[in-house]
Specification:
CATH topology of the largest domain: Rossmann fold
Number of strands: 18
Helix content: 40-55%
Structural class: alpha/beta
Number of domains: 4
CATH superfamily of the largest domain: P-loop containing nucleotide triphosphate hydrolases
Strand order of the largest sheet: 5-6-7-3-8-9
């Protein structure tokens, strides 16, 4: 059964084409993830499909009721607060005390409670901690038909069986979850690169042949040096193949080669990110094994309740160490004290010590470190210790276009300001980074670009995040905040999850996962070598990927 059929859709934003496509069908049982850069039109597409926004061209037929969880924004706060009041969630509280996570949970409950056969969910993980996200996964997995926009790749992997990418003003359709989509994109990139290399090799070979034939034609038509003109003409007249005929033949042959070059099907080189990296030695990094440590940390917030003299205890005699060169993920429930710990480190709270050469760089969520009226480049280079070319390269690797450098910061979106804030950190003299929810405001391509930069970063990082995929790709250690204490785990996020399981289950699961990873590697090679079996092999690849993902997250 088709729930929604959209045909010949076109939507413009001012004079800019946002997207256009021939047909999009949402069928009963579909679980679709919509991905694409910020500004590509993901939310606009949902609004058109739901009927909230009219397309500039085309038709949309709807055969069912739609529940729509909308992306949270400041403009919706008053309306959402009214909903909370009606549901008696916060009758006795002022609006500003309603947490973002609570707001998200209540609005999700409202959308899911409608009982509609089709759910649209736009960034439903906003303000949720890891426990909240796990509960959301469970709830959304029970929805029969779903269209989801999310920057959480883990959520897209668990829930989606189809991916729609908005790219270059068009819609591209992929089968499978987000990991399968990424695999398909990577295969397409490799295929495009192979085609480009074959094209350039053939073109260069034909150009060499053309030049050789042109040179030979010139040599054939040139009078030998040891003959005068009269003798040369006589020799040419008596020859079985006169010089001028040979020359014409060679020139004709050269033109044929030139024609082949001109008629080659041009293959474009796939876009590649620049690889210029900051010179980390300029930060004068410490050589100590431990760059930051805390001992006997006790901290409470003063209570704002009517009961005077009470306060909420956050840390009770907690301790931690931060090893040099490690990227440590700070995990814990909302309110456990993750942001508090970062603030205590910044304020040099009693019991927290850093080595003399450790220089802290802090990621400001509210962009306090940006001068709104200055240009992007002026902001970037204000405290930079790197060359300007390095700074420009970092901006480019974070997917900020080259023409942005001369724009004032006031003209940037929230996501673009986040990228600039990170770029400032990477070119500063900081060698110890503190990050609180670094992936907020960022689309998936930007998060993946940030992951690559952090994987190359030579300094020490302590970051709080609810993005499982980001944690999995970046973290080399875990610091968990729980019940007023800090617990440290060596290894990556998967190692941390494994240690929280029982020993036997962990060992058995690890063997199965290793076997799956080996089979996936073999399949990836077969896919690239056997195009005729590509569809069948990719289907098997997706099945194994889902099973591996399930084992990693159980």
């Amino acid at each position: 059964m088709n729930y929604i059929t959209a045909k010949q859709i076109k939507k413009e934003f001012g004079e800019r084409l946002l997207f256009s496509f021939e047909e999009l069908v949402i069928r009963k049982g579909d679980k679709i993830g919509i991905v694409g850069p910020n500004g590509s039109g993901k939310t606009t597409l949902l609004q058109i499909l739901s009927g909230e926004l009219e397309p500039d061209a085309g038709t949309v037929e709807r055969q069912c009721d739609i529940a729509y969880f909308k992306q949270f924004s400041n403009q919706r706060e008053a309306e959402d607060f009214k909903l909370l009041k009606e549901l008696r969630v916060s009758d006795k509280r002022e609006q500003q005390t309603v947490s973002g996570g609570e707001n998200t949970r209540i609005r999700l409950a409202g959308a899911l409670g409608k009982g509609s056969p089709l759910l649209f969910a736009d960034e439903p993980t906003s303000n949720l901690d890891l426990k909240g996200i796990e509960l959301l996964k469970k709830k959304l997995s029970e929805v029969e038909t779903l269209v989801l926009i999310s920057h959480d790749r883990d959520l897209l992997d668990v829930l989606c069986t189809k991916i729609i990418e908005i790219r270059e003003e068009k819609l591209f359709f992929y089968s499978g979850n987000y990991s399968a989509y990424k695999t398909a994109r990577e295969h397409a990139y490799l295929s495009q690169m192979r085609e480009y290399e074959a094209y350039t090799e053939k073109k260069e070979r034909l150009e060499r042949i053309y030049q050789q034939k042109k040179k030979r034609a010139h040599e054939v038509g040139t009078r030998p040096r040891n003959l005068d003109p009269k003798e040369a003409r006589l020799k040419n007249f008596l020859a079985s193949r006169p010089f001028d005929v040979k020359q014409q033949h060679m020139e004709s042959s050269a033109k044929a080669v030139l024609s082949r070059i001109e008629h080659l099907q041009v293959k474009e080189k796939p876009k590649q990110q620049p690889v210029i990296r900051p010179d980390f030695s300029l930060t004068d990094p410490p050589k100590n094994k431990i760059v930051l440590e805390g001992e006997g940390i006790t901290f409470s917030y003063s209570s704002s309740s009517e009961e005077k003299g009470t306060g909420r205890s956050i840390f009770r005699n907690a301790r931690f160490t931060l090893p040099n060169g490690k990227r440590i993920a700070l995990l814990g429930d909302n309110g456990a004290g993750k942001s508090t710990l970062l603030n205590l480190i910044m304020s040099e709270y009693p019991g927290i010590r850093k080595v003399p050469k450790a220089k802290i760089g802090y990621f400001y969520q509210n962009f306090e470190n940006l001068e709104e009226e200055q240009t992007v480049l002026e902001n970037l280079m204000k405290e930079s210790i790197q060359e300007e070319s390095v700074g420009r390269s970092v901006l480019n690797r974070l997917l900020l276009p080259r023409n942005f450098v001369d724009q004032p910061v006031s003209s940037l979106s929230g996501g673009e300001k986040v990228k600039l804030s990170f770029a400032k950190l990477f070119v500063s003299d900081a060698n110890l980074l503190l990050l609180d929810e670094p992936t907020n405001y960022l689309d998936i391509p930007s998060v993946e670009a940030l992951c690559k930069l952090f994987s190359e970063y030579e300094g020490t990082v302590l970051f709080a995040s609810h993005d499982k995929s980001f944690i999995r790709e970046v973290a080399t250690g875990i610091l968990e905040v729980k019940n007023g204490k800090l617990f440290q785990f060596e290894g990556n996020y998967d190692d941390y999850l494994e240690r929280k399981k029982g020993p036997k289950k962990r060992d058995d699961t690890k063997i199965v996962m290793m076997n799956l990873e080996m089979e996936l590697s073999a399949l990836s090679l077969r896919i690239s070598q056997n195009p005729k079996e590509k569809e069948e092999l990719e289907s098997r690849y997706q099945e194994l990927s889902k099973e591996l993902y399930r084992l990693k997250n159980n």
